[in-house]
Design a protein that fits this description.
Blueprint lengths: L2 H13 L2 H8 L3 H15 L4 E4 L2 E4 L1 H25 L14 H10 L1
Antiparallel strand pairs: 1-2
Helix pairs in contact: 1-2, 1-3, 1-4, 2-3
Length: 108
């Protein structure tokens, strides 16, 4: 399992589509499919139900969702902590929903 698989899983879950996740991650749809297949093989479960309408989380996928979010957050926090210059003790993170940013960019 790697961080790109986790990010891809979260993007597909958020967008309900392999194609939309590929567009948002700037990769091909086949890359998204391969990452999800490898993650599913690693975990030994199917994470998504795939059909013409898109992709929806299976029961195991719904359970993995909170773990994936925690994994990504932990890794990002570790990266920030390790990369913090020695003269600083801590960092501040500010978050916003991506939908808010997209609305501002379109209207602004």
């Amino acid at each position: 399992m790697d961080i790109d698989q986790i990010r891809t899983f979260l993007s597909v879950a958020a967008n309900g589509s392999f194609l939309e996740a590929a567009n948002r991650l700037y990769v091909t749809q086949s890359t998204v499919s391969t990452r999800i297949q490898r993650l599913e093989a690693y975990l030994g479960v199917s994470l998504f139900v795939r059909n013409r309408a898109g992709a929806s989380l299976t029961q195991p996928g719904q359970r993995f969702l909170r773990h994936a979010k925690a994994l990504l957050l932990t890794l990002e926090q570790a990266r920030h902590d390790i990369g913090l210059p020695s003269r600083f003790r801590d960092s501040v993170s500010i978050g916003a929903r991506i939908a808010l940013c997209e609305a501002c960019c379109r209207n602004g």
